[in-house]
Fold this protein.
Amino acid sequence: MIDRFARDGFVLLRGYFRPVELQRICEVVRRFHRAWLRDNRRGFRDGLVNSAYLTARGELAEPDRLLLFRFVAQNKLLRLARPLLAGRPTFINTQLFFAPYDRARKNYWHRDVQYTGLSEARQREALQSQEVWHFRIALADDPGIELIPGSHRRWDSELERDVRLERGGRRNWEDLPDGRLLPMRRGDLLVFSTNMLHRAVYDQQRFSLDVLLSTPDPLVTRYVRRDCLPGRLQARRLRRLALFERGRRRPGVRATDRQRGRPSRRKRSSP
């Protein structure tokens, strides 16, 4: 499987979670989402398609927060993450991807690194040096992700760059010739590199939880919000606490807004 990750930049594991394994976490995530919608009505209508920082203090009741930490730290995820992340997986963030308000909303090609504020030269370097991975769990049937296999280790072709950055009259929602569509069913797990060229696919059922894990690279862990990590009470009741502690070792800073039109609370990260 590691060879597939290295070559393609993703692996889709069908039915990785049984319905009973998702029941409680789905209830927690839906409570978060209802509160998010109340707080972000305008942003949702203006086009937001995901939220983030589900584990932040004050966003969930403490029992729900503990359940979410336990879900993130379960061995079922970490046994995949360890070989990808040099045996030292590090928690970065959680995100929720949901159906857009506007059913006609266009999806768009991007690389997560383009929202970090790095120069293009540094972005290209990051493809070779930074290991950050999405662990995306479909809590409902999801039209999934379209991605360019292998693009996590190479820079854009001229056409890909023009489309992604909307250069030369191109639009970032245009089809690309090497795109591969990966629809997901409830319980599927898609693991893919944040470095790769990808775009979401929207419909009215989309509801997927995303866990971002990395190596303990200071250039990545500086974006970890300390209020999203377990406090002392949660820490006493968690196994595999090192997953979170590796991100705490450097001073936490509030992650910069990396997309347009983002509200002040329960912000999104990337589609």
